[in-house]
Amino acid sequence: MIKLIALYRNEMTKLWRRPVLYIMAIILVLLSTGISLLLKEADRFQVVEPRPLESVEAEIAAERDTYQSMLEQAEADLEAHEPEADPASPTLQAAYQRYGKARAELHRLDWIESHKDLYSQMGSAYDFLVPYTEMKAAQFTFERKPAAARSIRETAAYSVLKSSISRYEARFERGTLADILDILHDLQRLSGQDDAVSEKVFALESEMAASGVSAQNIFALSAGYRDALLRLAGMETGGDKNTVYLPSERKTLEHEVLMYEYRGTGRADNPIGDTAANFYYYILISFAAFVGGILVIIVAGSQISSERSSGSIKSLILSPVRRWKIVTAKLSASFTVLLLFTLITWLVCTLSLQLIVGYPLQPYLYVSNGQVAEMPGWIYGLATAFLQNIGSLFFLLFAFMLSAAGLSTAAAVGISMGIRFGAQPLVFLLYQILPEAVWMRFLPFQHFDLQHHILPLGTSDLGTFGGIGTSAGPPTSLSFSLIWLVSLSLIMLIAAYDSFTRKDL
After folding, report:
1. How far apart are the C-alpha atoms of 171 and 69, rounded to whole Å?
2. Fewer CB under 10 Å: which end of the chain, C or N?
3. Is residue 339 a contact partner of residue 292, using CB atoms and an 8 Å limit?
4. For residues 211 and 350, which has the higher predicted lDDT (pLDDT)?
5. Other CB atoms within 10 Å distance of the CB of residue 357
């Protein structure tokens, strides 16, 4: 054991002197910083971008002039033609319509001016004033017409319209977020869109509004919640008759619904910021794992072959140390490099996420016994860093095996990198061409993404943008992937030990 430890320390000393470690560390920091800056600029989770108050005021000023001119022109046309023309003439009816629209739009601008803060929060995702403005336009148009120009159908419709408007006016005048949500729900009822899904969405929106969640976060989260409820309802009613829903798919969707509800109530401070953080971290750590994969292939692929080419391997072989201990020390040093680099990537990506993107890593949500639970963010981040480096660990063993088998450093590293970064796109392409091919399950390159088995990011973690972390190839179980990867790893370990201990060096 003492000799093994001494060999390990010697190998680590050699590795610390290699410039590639520090070059890759610098690349990692630069890459994480650059991607973080891009994510900050292209924040896809700002589903409802709030409008600056200056923009709102400019919009009011520009539109007020337009509609004020329209109103004056309509009134001038009516004064010129109303005494002489037939009340039912198309020219006169068009003037009435322009008058009503101009009055309604000016009324809308008055409301915006009185509720600038709320309107700026609502942004452009919900043009919630359109239905009410259309009703007001119909009201102003009808009231401007003389009795002779009103048809029986218009009069009957107006009596219904007036009762509807009276239901909204008081709530519009108060203009709170809860009032607006209530009005939107009423409008859904009038348009025939009221159903069990809408009731659940409205209940979640109301609870979030009462908790002080901003409008943009409410609408962004509720959009994904509605989509999940609709998909679940489609499963319950059969949905697409040509689609067979697996019990696992239904369970996953039920869990997503529970997590939406939890984010809207249990974590109502910033539900969209919560979802964005873990997704952005996933992107950062994926790129970091790419850098780590290159590093460990270079290190492992040169552990034995470089000493063979320089001739220093002879001194090790002639020393009173068994060959298996030499292999173990070199392999342990390579594992240490991967472990340390994984910890560094976790730290660098976490800091980049918080300091540059502005999203601290959030707890990971999962469902246990029908209840939503939280995994601390730092544990989720660390676990994700290790899961993203499963492929790096596999190719560390592969490159080490090639190096031990007698290949040159260039050959061991080149072959490993070629397969590492070329095989997975090829597997994806083959799966698109041969989606039913069972033999593709036995290709090792599609089993690296264990994250979608262990810590998947579903739609509830990604706002309204759908899930990630699914395998590119045929679906496989976690147990199958683990057994397959462990079996291949053992084969490569045995091959490396056998090659080195038997080969005449």
Report:
1. 29
2. N
3. no
4. 350
5. 22
